[in-house]
Amino acid sequence: MLFLTAALALASDWPQWRGPTADGISSDDGVPTRWSKSENVVWKAPLPGLGTSTPIVLGNRVFVTSQTGDGPFEGRGRDFEGATEARKSGDGPVRFNVHAFDRATGKELWKHSMAAEGPLQPVHLKHNLASPSCVTDGERVYAWFGTGQLTALSLDGKPVWSRHLGKEFGPFDILWGHGSSATLYKGSLLLLVDHPPGAYLLSVDARTGKDRWRTDRGKDRRSYTTPFVIRAGDHDELILNTNDGVEAVDPVSGKPLWKAGEANRVPVPTPVYHEGILYVNRGYTSSPYLALRPGGKIEWEIKTGAPYVSSLLYHDGLLYMANERGVVSVANAANGASIWKDRFGGVFSASPVAAGGHVYLSAEDGTTYVLAAGKEKKVIAENSLGERTLASLAIAGGRIFIRTDQHLYCIGKN
Predict the structure, then answer these.
(1) Helix, strand, coil: what percent of the chain each, to 5?
(2) Is 6 helix (H, G, I), strand (E, B) or coil?
(3) Cα–Cα distance measured from residue 402 to residue 390, given in angstroms and rounded to the nearest whole number
């Protein structure tokens, strides 16, 4: 099973990217399946800055990052038909923000803001330098930005420590901007910086911000994925989706353990893990997807058809996926064979989540499709907020938290 941090004691929390077990699964029942701009909106809070990071939830607080001010853009826009352009963050210097909202009311409790320092990496118009999601261990919240700036804050917003990895180890430099989020493991933050000029994996003491270890990974590496830890037999393994393949590293020392799979130019998705099997789509256009065991033995591989950006969802023996060309599909987790696929339209960048026997798929135009989990295609609802949505949904306490370009929404049954 996935390693759980101290923050995961409450099933009603969503303390990191993809939730309590880092796989997009919520154990909550009674989660809403229908909403609109006016129906089942418990509250919505304005967000002054942009970002594609997922909100995280702990206790009575919801945390999310944003960027105000526009840095340079790489210049590519509508990669896929139907893609929605980002609005601009506004004039003025670039600043990075961590916001905390009251979970019950949506009132902003505090905002921690810092100036962007050092070179600003040109980014794709789909995201910016506030793409990494926060993570919390129940005592502090940790935020990482695309310049390499890393900060630890108390739950009341007071700075505990901060670092600038771009200044310490070299400017962040990866096409379209950094996307990987931090991962917590036994009191440390694990940070993947697979950038072509010089890649490394870093373990930082979460309490003090000091290095525990750093592993040089060489040059010409590239990854936008968030690493995560699994239990493999009698030991833990840190799983990475990289341009060289699917890799495992010892999370205690950084020592490489194994590597499997073929190379891929743009690895974005994060793997999921269930009962000793890893499932991963590798990224880039019409991604291959595969199942493998710790140690690197490949059980099966399908050469095409999976999403470029969004990760897979495993649920009750099925793999759910929604890609950048608007195609939603369900595959058999036992062999990867397609069960059904259909073109829903739009573009999907957010990763799917599941709760209460339903699967939630959010498109960039702000429409969330709710499916009944299972082999039969059954669309329960199409819910539109009419605002660009690239961030994955968070589910906590029977409510859904949706981050759009303009707002943070709390969806619940009124």
Answers:
(1) 0, 45, 55
(2) helix
(3) 10
* Beta-sheet pairing, 108-115 with 95-102: antiparallel
Task: Specify whether the backbone of 218 is left (phi greater than 0), alpha (psi in -120 to 50) or beta.
Answer: left
- Tell me which DSSP letter residue 106 carries: -
Neighbours of 202 (CB within 10 A): 22
Residue 8: strand, helix, or coil: helix
Instruction: Encode pLDDT of 274-307 as tens digits.
Output: 999 999 999 988 899 999 999 999 999 999 999 9
Residues 6+ apart with CB under 8 A from 69: 89, 90, 91, 92, 93, 94, 95, 116
3-state secondary structure 359-372: EEEECCCCEEEEEE
pTM: 0.95
Q: What's the CA gap between 203 and 190, in Å, rounded?
A: 5
Q: What is the pLDDT of residues 223-239, one digit of tens each?
A: 999 999 999 999 999 99
Q: Under DSSP, is residue 114 helix (H, G, I), strand (E, B) or coil?
A: strand
- Cβ count within 10 A of residue 314: 23
Cβ contact 411:395 at 8 Å? no
